[in-house]
């Protein structure tokens, strides 16, 4: 080797050493986004180059990166939590942060930093997402009351990861006002609600984690009374009782009266009125005409009124010769001596026929 060759090799080695000494540290690898279940384990890797003379730290931040929590510096763990551990592989210059028994609060952004100076850092980050079952939020609709024909809006929101989907259903899989038995979306709108739309709606939140969550939303629809009469014409003999009935569908529950000859009927020795609510929207009313007299035959009107309107229906009571059963021939009335025999009722009917025949003779 001559002098020129030696001189060239010598200065080449010096140049290579100078280049190596001036190389800037870098992060060559950071783990990809991690999605884990609560209670699981995750390992986050950060590999660095040319950072032997610098400090490498792990930091956890929130999704908004407002709060910092220092977890490690160099090969030492800073946080005092037995679920956390740190390993350093000198051969690959990799810092591995391990988290066991993952909790919901562990979700966030984890940053690997090489600190070059106070104001100069090299950073790479990985997001840890924790699967969480859906929980329907308190700001979701709990109940709705609306008048028939009005628009309504029912809202349902849920937290959880992955983001839950919202499905609407009705009790007994009845059709939704929007059509179909299900509807997807946070907001269920009805442009003009009908009384048939009232009932229980289910807001179901699901994201594949656990069994999901459900909220029952009660929809009450206010509407004017609608009266139906099961027997619009009834016949009964003199001196017997008779029941006149009407069924009322309305919400809010209506005020109910019976009227004859434009006079409101009240409970007395001639009449007995009963009102029985079978549900919030359904009411039955019975007017018992007691020991019928001639003047009590005629038209009776059942009236119902609430804040949205009113309705009425007519029942005509006419005279017959033969008593109508029931209530005239009720069997099994209990006395202190036992039950009255059905033969007594039959005897009364025959007696009425005899009296009628005598009058006709």
TrEMBL record:
GO terms for biological process: cell-cell adhesion. It holds the Pfam family V-set. It is found in: Cell membrane. Residues 1-21 form the signal peptide. Residues 25-129, 133-220, 225-316 form the Ig-like domain. The chain crosses the membrane at residues 339-358. It comes from the Eukaryota. SUPFAM superfamilies: Immunoglobulin. Coiled coil: none annotated. Its main location: membrane. Keywords: Cell membrane, Disulfide bond, Glycoprotein, Immunoglobulin domain, Membrane, Repeat, Signal, Transmembrane, Transmembrane helix. This is Ig-like domain-containing protein.
